[in-house]
Fold:
Amino acid sequence: MPTYNKLTPAILDELRTILGEKNVITDTDRMQPYSHDEVTESRYHHMPEVVVFPETTEQTAAVVKLANRSLIPVVPRGAGTGLACGAVPIYGGIILSLEKMNNILEIDPKNMFMVVQAGARTEEVQQTAAKHGLLYAGDPCSGDSCFIGGNVATNAGGNKAVKYGTTRHQVYQVEVVTPTGEITKLGSRLNKSTTGYCLEQLVIGSEGTLGVITEITLKLVPLPQHVMDLLAVFPDVDSAIAFVNVIAQSGITPTCLEFMDNVAIRCVERFINEKLPYDENGNYLIIQIEGDSEEKLEDYAMRIDELCSSHGGLELLVANSAQIWKARKSFAEAVRHETLIHSNEDIVVPIDKMPEAMKHMAGICEKHGAAARTVSHAGDGNIHLSILQGSVPLAEWPERLAKIHKEIFSYVYPLGGKLSGEHGIGYKKKALFHEYTDPVELQLMQAVKKAWDPNLILNPGKVFDC
Ligand SMILES: Cc1cc2nc3c(=O)[nH]c(=O)nc-3n(C[C@H](O)[C@H](O)[C@H](O)COP(=O)(O)OP(=O)(O)OC[C@H]3O[C@@H](n4cnc5c(N)ncnc54)[C@H](O)[C@@H]3O)c2cc1C
Structure:
């Protein structure tokens, strides 16, 4: 990595000239929230030297140009809900927060698209689309707090990815400030294009290492007229997960297929202080279905009910939607409530490998004295395993966690799995990513980074080192 320069009073003055006094902060107390994301362990926290709040794309470009010229790292930041330390300024420098670029710029219901600034909250994007009878289908569990730009930068998944895909499937075009401070629009509002490389898809999921995303043109679809949440309860993990493929083969495409194991159900129950169905022995598949009529949904529900009882299910319930989604979406907070010493993994494996992977990984945690809590976006093979401190002494935790990670990933990769289904690599998973990625693939990624960011100033030390 290059040696970066420290911020000087002269550079601070230039930042104030570009952005105005109020949009440049250096006060330690005010900068503190920008020293971390949702990863709670303090060894992953780093203070920036300055936090800036551009209000336009042009201001963003001027900041990046200045940083590039002065060899100062710039870390783009959305809402800081990330779980991989992607928005943490590990080399100090400038945090570039998109929070003041939060406008919905345009919605075109007839042509079903909308244009938003990167700092718009995801929930606001969803609600604006819904007011026009349309659906923005990106739906991460953090939607009430994360920003759409953060979703694009991480290619966020979430609950509706089974039917609609991840964030990358919802994007027509991104406006980007490149690491050298140029402004460009990548992609187009076209349904097909083989006109050169697909650079917008390269930026999507690049975790702030290839460009600052300032504006996004999003695809919308008609808002489903009728939605039903079902709760399929199974006596064990194997039968619950096996049911994911049973549904896929039935020809019914659910919107969501979310799994919670019994330990996770009890963990959430304690946190929300509500009794959940079959909490003594149940494992859940939350199945959301959509249709254009009540009759169609009832038909789907009856077919799923028959399949559930012939594949080992205990019961198929019409879910109390508010309660079941509250339970599912509270999982991360419930784990945090148990202990701040934990590590959230979002391993992805082929769906048929999920039951054995979940059991095996829980066994590894137990062997090392840690505790495991598991939920998953089961329809995508994306396992959210939280590894909790359990009986591991605090002083031994980093080393023990490293051993657990080693055993887990040595097991997951030969299964055809990968490190992250949606949270990304950031800083936290960089060493593991380096260890488990094919060297040729890694070199190609490093070559792309060097071509886009010759001075390596944009979010350095994330995903991989160059
Ligand atoms: C309770 C909870 C539930 C969650 N559920 C989900 C889920 O269901 N699915 C899922 O995918 N994730 C989930 N997450 C993780 C997180 O919310 C997502 O990764 C989200 O997309 C991050 O958005 P953000 O605005 O908070 O980005 P940040 O955390 O601020 O940044 C994340 C990364 O994106 C980069 N970045 C942010 N904005 C920009 C930009 N405008 N231009 C360039 N780079 C940028 C940052 O540099 C960083 O590398 C969850 C997190 C929590 C705490």
In short: Residues 37-38, 75-83, 86-87, 98, 118, 140-142, 146-147, 149-151, 153-154, 156-158, 207-208, 212-213, 332, 422-423, 426, 459, 462 surround flavin-adenine dinucleotide (CB under 6 Å). The CA atoms of residues 237 and 355 lie 6 Å apart. The chain has 16 helices and 18 strands.
